[in-house]
């Protein structure tokens, strides 16, 4: 039997700062937040925001304001417990370096550009 257990890595100082800020803001807005680890090098953190649908949607701009990170919605869903939305917070595009094999839909360009 494999005795190894998955241990979550300690957050980087930037991740800890962002998560602390979001927890404080969410509490003030009456929302619940949770965090996950992004799959891409440019991901700072994944944020799960839960609450009443309209409250969550109205609060998102306030929640993420001033973090100086790009946001990308990963998914949203309505559950019996309420609405939840998962948002990837990533390094701003100007600070990102290209990683072979990794790209987000927002990095593909406009389809109309040809």
Structural shape: globular
Q: What share of the residues does DSSP label as strand, in percent?
A: 25-35%
**What's the CATH class label?**
Alpha Beta
Q: What is the ordering of alpha helices and beta strands?
A: HEEHEE
Overall structural domain count: 1
CATH superfamily: YajQ-like, domain 2
What is the CATH topology? Alpha-Beta Plaits
- Cα(first) to Cα(last) distance is 54 Å
Which range best describes the helical content: under 10%, 10-25%, 25-40%, 40-55%, 55-70% or over 70%?
25-40%
Radius of gyration: 16 Å
Which blocks of ≥5 consecutive residues have pLDDT under 50? none
What does this structure look like?
Strands 1-2-4-3 form a four-stranded antiparallel beta sheet. The relative contact order is 0.17. It has a single domain, classed as Alpha-Beta Plaits (2-Layer Sandwich). The protein contains two helices and four strands; from the N terminus they run αββαββ. The protein is of the alpha+beta class and 114 residues long. The mean pLDDT is 82.
Concise account of the structure shown:
The chain is of the alpha+beta class and 114 residues long.
Observed structural traits:
114 residues, 4 strands, alpha+beta, 25% helix, globular, 4-stranded antiparallel beta sheet, Alpha-Beta Plaits, 2 helices
List the helices and strands and how they pair.
Blueprint: H1 13-29, E1 32-36, E2 43-51, H2 53-64, E3 70-79, E4 82-90
Antiparallel strand pairs: 1-2, 2-4, 3-4
